[in-house]
Amino acid sequence: MSQGELHLFQMGDKKIVFDVESDSLYVVDGLAWNVINLLDQGYSRERLYSLLADQYSREDIGEVLQEIEELKSAGHLWSPPPHLENTPAEPVVKALCLNAAHICNLTCRYCFAGKGEYGGGKPLMSYQVGKSAVDFLLEQSGGRRHVEIDFFGGEPLLNLENVKKITEYAREKGKEKGTEVRFTLTTNGLLLNDEVREYLARENFSVILSLDGRPEVHNRMRTFPDGSFSYPRVIKRLSNFVNSWEGSYYVRGTYTRFNRDFFNDVYHLYQEGFRHISLEPVVSEPHQDWALQEEDLDELAGQYRKLAEFYLECCWAGDPFTFFHFEIDLEEGPCLFKRLSGCGAGSEYLAVTPDGDIYPCHQLVGMKEYVMGNVLAPERVKHILPEEKFPAVGPTLDSCRNCWARYHCGGGCRAASLVVNGDPKIPYNLECALQQKRLECALYIKACLKEE
Questions:
Q1: Which residue, 122, 124, 130, is CA-closest to 97?
Q2: CA-based nearest residue to 435, from 412, 401, 402
Q3: Would you say 324 and 266 are in contact if contact means Cβ atoms under 8 Å apart?
């Protein structure tokens, strides 16, 4: 059986050891750090004694070696990789992204959807298409107890009446089949009012609210069609909504090369009273002036470290917040198949357009070569995309096999790889590096809170 892998890193005043296979996490002192580091490099015990003799006594080194051996025997250090041949080969559909509207009341510069229009087609999803999409989801869900529908756009609240009808139908059909349908709605917030909030609360929606951060940052990229700034209206709507909202929500922003100091945007959102925050790096063709570059990585990594320290300060001050990429569960995290398959785009997760076309991901909508079928067609899905066109991702691939973060990444975003590299099979290196840094920050936070 092959030996597993450790990831050792330092952050703040902490020396941290992370076992890749078991998700075991340790904060260690200088002696243990040196011993584990040398063992990880393949040094023998006797050679280790010799190398550390000037700093530590043989007795102290021996005690640490014994503790390490006990942890290794228990499967918490250098834990061997799992047997992957027993993982399921054909996952069922668990979630649909329903593009309720291919129109929008904003014209965001970085929008992958062509400013919300996705290159044309029907502007609004009809009830019939939505109904057929629900039938398709329940047919393909394999009798799961829970499935998910995310109403997306464009701006889905521009089609609120059909959103309501589709939701009602999904509730009824799900109940007949013994399946609970959970709902999410992603909105820029401009159409949120008391009536909409009451409806979303009554139907137990989770809500994703789009806001990029500081006024000047938000206004630079997210404007009205006439070019006027949207921040004043958006912040008012979102603040009013969240102040009286008891359900699940995230304020979700995008940072670009124009605001590489994105910690200040998270801080701004926190100061505005938002306590569930997600800020994502923009995915865009490299030639765009807002596209992030690999030369920005050190600066971006520093921002994540700064954000991790602020996160801890807020926890210790008794006013914590959640930052999406810092929320990891090392005890009862995702199952092995989920860790191997990532987001599940093209299999567990699919997107449906107002025309009824099925795509493997909402970010690929409009690229006709990726159409998988149509929910209005009797056969539903015409074909599964060939591996060479939309390859499986995960830690078993050569490009990911040696990455210590592989089980918390799932192989990265193939849509991002397609946009940036022109090929979904080529990893987006900047995304990989940022994922590793975010995971280090999340582990550092876990370690600090555990010690506290």
A1: 130
A2: 412
A3: no
> What is the number of alpha carbons within 13 Å of residue 257 lying toward its C-beta?
16
117: which 2 tokens? Answer: 């229009």
**Angle at Cα 406 formed by Cα 186 and Cα 18, nearest 5°?**
110
CA distances from 128 to 100, 308, 311 (A): 12, 46, 46
Q: DSSP label at 260?
A: S
Burial bucket for residue 361 (CB in 10 Å: 0-12, 13-18, 19+)? buried
pLDDT digits (tens, 9 = 90+) for 130-149: 999 999 999 999 888 999 99
CA distance 103 to 115: 8
CA distance 128 to 412: 34
Q: Rounded to whole angstroms, how far apart are CA atoms 309 and 305?
A: 6
Integer Cα distance of 186 and 184 in angstroms: 7
Give the model confidence (pLDDT) of 204-225 as tens digits.
Answer: 999 999 999 999 999 999 999 9
Tell me the C-alpha distance between 89 and 58, whole Å: 51
* DSSP-assigned beta bridge partners for residue 14: 11
CB contact set of 380 (below 8 Å; sequence gap of 6+) = 136, 139, 140, 358, 373, 374
Its pTM surpasses 0.85? yes
Angstrom distance (rounded) from CA 17 to CA 446: 12
